[in-house]
Amino acid sequence: MRPPLYLRALKQDLDIWIEGGLVPAASRDAILQSAGTQKGKISAVGVLAMLGAVFMALAALSFIGANWGGIAKIVRFGLVLGLMWGALGVALYALKRRAHAFAHAFALIAAALFGVGIMLVAQIFNIAAHYPNGIFIWALGALAVAVVMPSRPVLLLAAGLAALWMLVSYSGSLPGFNPLIWALLPLLMVLWAAARHLRAVDSAHVIVLTALVWATHLLAQAERHQYLSEIEAISLFATMALALLLWAGLGRAKSIFGAPAAQLWAGLALLGSAFVLQYTFADFAREAVAPGTLWSLLAGVLLLLISTAVMIAYQAKTLSLLEAAIPIIGGFFLLGISPLSIHLGEFTAQILYGAMFFAGAVLTLLKGARSGQKYLLWLGGIAFIAEALYAYFETFKDLLSTSIFFLIGGLLMLIMALIAMRFGKVLAKGGAS
Questions:
Q1: Is 409 inside any structural domain?
Q2: How many domains does the chain have?
Q3: Whole-angstrom Cα distance, residue 394 to residue 390?
Q4: What are the tens digits of pLDDT across the range 123-161?
Q5: Cα separation, 334 vs 322, whole angstroms
Q6: pTM as predicted
Q7: In a domain, 123, yes or no
Q8: 273 in a domain, yes or no?
């Protein structure tokens, strides 16, 4: 039986494909019935095999650790290598015997022991190095095992190790910045290619999230070295998330692997960064400076990416003229709020930004209602509620009481709902005629 979330997403995709003429409407029930009767990839045997293998690995490591002081260095090294290659041999044998659950379990153990071996070798031979680089080598080894087997669980481990390496690469013997951090980008590309080949959706989520966090680190370093101000760094990240959201939408329409994962995390990144952006107005108003060369270059590239994605979607008739204009205006506004804050001042900038944030949240809700995408409904709803609470506590707490504020907000939403309903009836009559 397929997971409920998979079936729910399939129903939504089928409705979109049927509306677009890609799938015959008569095939909908047959496709859903076929998907509902298929067995999932994860079984009880697989879960128990992996858990048993993990306990065996922990037992072996605990035994070695308990007797570590009495074992010669060369014997220690041999034990670690023997366990690793033994687990890999069992995995290959299980794969040959078509015992896939045990193959994945022992492949996962082999990849884990590879990392343990790296750390133990460094300890045995007193190798002084930037310790996060050991995690980087571990990720490469796990990736190799995942491709050779092939194994989705091991690929997920490799993706997680890449994320872990990126997170800890700013500490250790090279505080603040690890030059090898630039190697994360090609590593993520290789991981993405492997995930696409194995159809590993879970790994795709980890890769996209890692890339977004990596981008925040780079922008934070630029802000730390005073190439960007705080408001410029956050506005660039929000605009980047908007560009990724648009391109992921194009990819999802063409059923490109990983596009739904990119769309999910890009939307959340856009929501979070756009909301946090308004907290920077006060500090920026006191230390306002004109945008520098780096900001101008990155802003131009992001606006070009947004405009190109919108143009492609508009030519494909998946966006109306109004819908195509909204993300372009949003991109210009996210980037323009930084120089505008210099001239408008803190209070005016907050009011203008809050109004635009509310408008974006409402438009997202309307787009989700029109297209039937619950993801957009959730995104727009969370954005609207968050901004409403922020507006009350930061702006209106000294001007309006709680009841009056929410009364006005509720009346405005009801009026907008009536306008939207009326607009929908007009469109329906126009389509019927």
A1: no
A2: 2
A3: 6
A4: 666 665 556 778 888 899 999 999 888 888 899 999 999
A5: 18
A6: 0.73
A7: no
A8: yes
